[in-house]
Amino acid sequence: MEETRTISFLDRTFHLTENNTNIKRESLAGLTTFVSMAYILFVNPSVLGVAGMDKGAVFTATALSAIIGCLLMGLLANYPIAIAPGLGDNAFFTYSVVLAMGIPWQKAMAGVLVASVLFTILSFLKVREVVINAIPKDLKYAMAAGIGIFISFVGLQGGGIIVASKSSLVELGSLTVPTTWITITGIFLIAVLMVRRVPGAIFIGLVTTTILGLVTGLVKMPTHIVSMAPSMAPTFGIGIKFLPTMADPKMWAVVLIFLLVAFFDTAGTLVGLAQEAGLMRDNKMPRIGKALMADSLSMLGGAVMGTTPTSAYVESSAGIAVGGRTGLTAVVTGLLFVLSMAFSPLLTVVTTQVTSAALIVVGVLMVSSLKKIEWHKFEIAMPAFLVVIGIPLTYNISYGIAFGFLTYPILMVAAGRKREVSPIMWIMFFVFIALLYILNILPK
After folding, report:
1. Phi/psi of residue 310, each to 5°?
2. Where is this protein chiefly located (predicted)?
3. What domain range includes position 92?
C-alpha cells in the first residue's frame, strides 16, 4: 500500500505517465547522467587548485552546488537536466583571471559572486527567458547538433582516439595505448545494444566497460570505499568577504565575461537538450523560467560555498538517451551526488575512457536535429552551419552561438527578410560584438 502511494506521489509530482515514462526508466537515466558527469568532482578541484584554492573544500563545494542545482531543476522545473560547476568557467577563472591577470583567487571569487547575483536578477526579471524564446528555431536546431558534435569530440579526445597535433591541430591517437581500447570497446558495445534496441544500452555499456577495465587492470581498484567529505571552511563565504575589492575597474570586465558566458552556455545547452528530449513546444521550452531560476540559484549557492559558476550539463544527454524525460531524472542525479560525498573513492573506477564511449554515441543522437534546418535557404544555412562547427572547433558553446548570432541578422537583411529578425536578435548582435572584443583584449 505504501509503495503504491509513493508511486502515485512521484507520478503526480513529475507527470511520469503524461511524459510516457516510469520510475525505473527515470532512475536509470539519473544514474547514467551521474556516471557521465561525476568526473567534475575530481576535475574541478584539480583546475581550481592551480589557482591556489583548497582542493578538499572545492570538492565539497562542487558536490553541494551540483546537489542544489539538480534538485532545483528536477523539483522546480521538472526537466531531466543536471547542473554542476562548468568546465569552461573554472578554466577561465584559473588561467585567465588568476594566473594571466594576476588577480588573487579570493578577489576573483568576489567577481563570481557578483556575476551570480546579476545572473539571478536577470532570471527573476525573465530577461533570459525572453532571449531564449527569441532565438529562431533553425538556430536552436543548430545548437543541439553543435553540442552533439562537441560532446562527441570531447569523448573522442577523452578516450585518446583523437589527440593534439602541432602540425594539424588534431590527429588519430595511438591504438597501442591500452586504455584507449576501453573507449573503443565501449563504443561498439553501446552501438550494438542501441541497434538491438536494448533498454538502458548506454548505462549497460558504461557498467560493462568499467568491469572490463577492473578485470584487465586498466582501471585501478580504489584503496578504500568510504571517506568523510572535506570541510569547506577554506573557501566558504570568501566571495562575500572580498566584495570591497570590486572597486577595481578591471574586475567588472571579469564579471561581464562570467555573466555572458554562463548566460549563453546554459541557454545553448538547455535548448539543445530540450530538443533532444522532444520537450520543445512551438519553438519554446515550457517552464524555461523555472529552469533558468534553478540554474541561477545553484550558481549563487556555488559562489558562496567556493566554486566557479554552475551550468546545465551536456552529459545530461546520456540520461535523456536512455529515456529520461522528467525532473525525477535530475533528482536521482542529485541524490547520487549526495552519496558521492561519502563514497568518493568509488568514483575513481568510472574513468574518462569509460564515459567517453557514452558521449560519442550520444553525439550521434543529437545531430539528428540537422535534418530540420532549412538548408536550401542560404540566409538560414550559413548561420546554422557556423553554430554547428563553431561550438566544437572553438571548444566553447558561447563562441559557437556568437558565430550564428553575428551572421543571422545581416544575412536576413540581405535576403530581404529584415522584418523577421526580432529586436532581441539585434541586441544580441551587439552584445556578442562586445563580448568577443573584451575576450580579445584580456590576457590569454
Report:
1. -85, 165
2. membrane
3. 8-441
